[in-house]
Structure formats: structure tokens, C-alpha cells
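Hi C.,

You asked whether I'd gotten around to modeling the 493-residue construct. I have! Everything is below, sequence then structure, no commentary in between.
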Amino acid sequence: MASSGITADAKKNKRTFWKRNADKVPGSIKPVYGAKHPPSEAMIQASLGNVDQGKNRNKRTDSFTDFDNSTVDAWDDKEDDLMLMGLSVDEKLPQVNETTEDVNQHHVAESGMSTSDQKDVQPPSPVSPGVGGPGVGIRQTVVREPPKPIAPIRIPNMPLPDREVTKLHKFGQLLSGPNTDLEELRKVSWSGIPNAVRPSAWKILLGYLPTNIERRQITLERKRAEYFGFIDQYFETRHELTHKDTYRQIHIDIPRTNPLMPLFHQPKVHEIFERILYIWAIRHPASGYVQGMNDLVTPFFVVFLSEYVDDTGTTLDNFDLSKLEEEKLGFIEADSFWCLSKLLDGIQDNYTFAQPGIQLKVTALRELVRRIDARLHNHLEKQNVEYLQFAFRWMNNLLMREIPLKCTIRLWDTYMSEGDGFANFHLYVCAALLVRFSERTQAQRDFHGILLFLQNLPTKDWGNEQIGMMVAEAYRWKFMFADAPKHLNTLKN
């Protein structure tokens, strides 16, 4: 139902896209908005309900049309009421001050040192991640025997700085104990997880593996067998009339995944991604597959692949999967599927009808930046730049197209430590990213220049240090605004 501000003529002339697709079947492809094709004003009003639209501004549609050909699409988010509930943040002001001081000291006094020597940043009190439940099978066939699992924790010998060795030892103690202290694991993971233990830490932080070490191997065996059973049940249906459009879109999107990384050019990788994404789409008919989900598989795939690659300096960018045993590829595929499912369970409203969660997040970002950096906000307003035109992609794909993959992996360390990081903390990270480039954005004097800059941010040389500073700034703002919900007042009735 459209908002009261939409006239009868507007309703009459409303695009019929959703009507034509109202009868989508489970596993079908859902429409995706992006900077190139943002939702109509009527759809935004319908999604946000009573959102205060503010004063009307003249839209320079001709400028956006000129910019149209230089933008790209993408896709991400969380529940409608996410922005209303606020975070329950403990009294951690001394911790925030320590974080800021550590970052400044490292940047000024130790700028020549490696990123592994950074000060540890203590995280806030985490919130237990939600646990979602997949659907039921559509038909039963013989389940093939899964490959035999290997030990879930592997801490190899490698040359590391003393500080990194100490941190690695602490992770080893946590992960190898009878029962991993999840609260402590989140605290030490917030400032980054060592590569050697990241696969195990991610699986525990996401809730894929239990904290009890004796149950982990049994859980791996059961979940991997369950995934291979899904393949036997569902994958043959990809050529059926009901699901062929879903599979076709997945098949088209996968070659576009990280095109600059040779690892993802290999046919074997394409086959793995096709199975992961198709099985997820079939088992989640409320949203189905949405373009861009293929990007979210890549961090899991790379991290879990590193678990089986010799620690001799081998880079994963050009790693030949034919050198890896089939059973280990099976481990990587199954683990990637379940961890992707855990992530998407928390932000599935990003992909439901009209993607209301993303609309809410973009509106919240606008209000947050207006309070944090009024000059930047006013400059965007003056040039008629809508936040939806650049921030939709940031929310839709968790900044994966804005920063290098290695930075995404580091950022996800913090998101998983936050508990609800993918759904909530991501908003503050987006604000920190935008404000970081405030001066350079204001230097762009027209609509076209601003959008071109914001969709091609100069982050290709970023590393752990830049991500560490950005999440520290994001946490500072989260601490300031989480108990002050008026900064999101445009979402209230």
C-alpha cells in the first residue's frame, strides 16, 4: 500500500514490475536495486512507512541520467526493527579512550612498523548471534557418503613477530581448551584474528561449531553429511522449469566474482559456488537467490582454503585447486555453505520483497552522517546527491566492492566478534568510511563527480591498519549513539 503522499495518478502510473513477479516460486530470483537502478520514490515510501521525508528538493534527473552509465549494481542488511531497538552497550568509555589512544600512538610513533604490531582494541560486550533454521527437503534420495573430516583446529609453525606469537598462543589456548570461552574469544578476535587460527575461530564465532571441543568433530561430520545430502536432494532440480531461472542467474553471476583474482577463474571454483548458492536459494524460498550473494561466499572460501594450504608463503590468489585433494575441497565447500547460511540468517531481510532492511539502513546512515559531519551532509544535499545512490551498494554487499578482499576478511573478524556486527555495527563502519573521505568528497563540486568518487574510493592499497582505525572510529560512534536513538528518529512513527 503506497503512502498517503502518493497521488492517484502516481498509483495509476506505478511500474508494474512487482505485479508481474508477484507469483514467484520458491528459489526464484528476486529484484535487486543498486546505484544504477535505485528504487522508485513510491517504493521507498511504502517500505519505510512513516519515515519523515523532510523538505522536498528539486531532483536533477538529467544529472543522474548522465551518471547512469558509469555506475554499477550490487546488493545486503537486517530486520526492519533493527534500527529501532538500539544496542545494549555496557559502560566502556575507558576502553574507547584506550582504543583511540592506541590507534593514534601507532599511527604517529610506529608508522614504520608492520600491521601485526598494532595495539589490541578491546571489543564491546558481544551479543549472542541468532540461530536460524533451514527448511525441509523436497524429496528424498540416497545420501552419498561424505568425505572423512580432519581435525578442526590447526596451528602450524611459521615465522611470526613476538607480539603475533603471543596472540597466536592465546588463541591456541582458547580454542584447544575443553570449553572455549566465547566471551573471551570475541574480545581477543575484535582487533583481528591470526591467519593460522582464523578458520576455527570463525566457525565457533558464527555458531557453526560448538564451544565444547569434544563435540566439534562430531558436529563437522554431521553437518558435512547433511550438506552433501542436500546436494543429492536438490541439485538435480536446477534444470526443472520451476528453478531453472534461479540456476541460470547463479551461473551468470559466478564468473563475475572477484574477476581480478585468478583463483576464482577456475572451473572447479565455479562448480563449488554454484552448488553452495543454489542449495541455499532452494532452502530459503522467502528470498531465494539475489544477485551479489556470490560475493559473500568468497571470504569463507578463501579462509577455509587457507586451512589446507602449506604455510610456506604460498599465496592463495593464484592457488591451483587441482593440487588439493577432493575430500578437502569437500570440507571447504560444506563449511563455506554452513557459515554463509549463518551470516545470511541474520540479514535475510535484505533480500525479501522490496528489500526494506536496506532502505532503513540507508536512511539511518543519512541521519547519522548529518549529526557527525554536517558540512559533508550539507554538501551532498546541495548537489542533490541521494544517499541511496551510493550507500545502497555499501549496505547490500557489506563493502566488499569498496575494499580489497584481505581487508574484508579482517573487517569480518570484528563483525563476528560484535555478535550482530553484520546487521548493526556495519552501519557505523559505513559512516566511518564516508567521513574518512569527507574532505575529498567535498572537493568534488558537482553531482557527477561526487558519485563517481564515492563509487570508486581509493582503497586498493588498504591493509589491516586502515581497517583497524576505521572500526575503532565506528565503535566510538556506536558507543556515543547506541543509547541515543534520536539519531535514528526518522525511522520512528
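If it helps when you're writing up: Confidence is low (pLDDT under 50) at residues 1-38, 46-62, 72-96, 110-157.

Thanks,
B.
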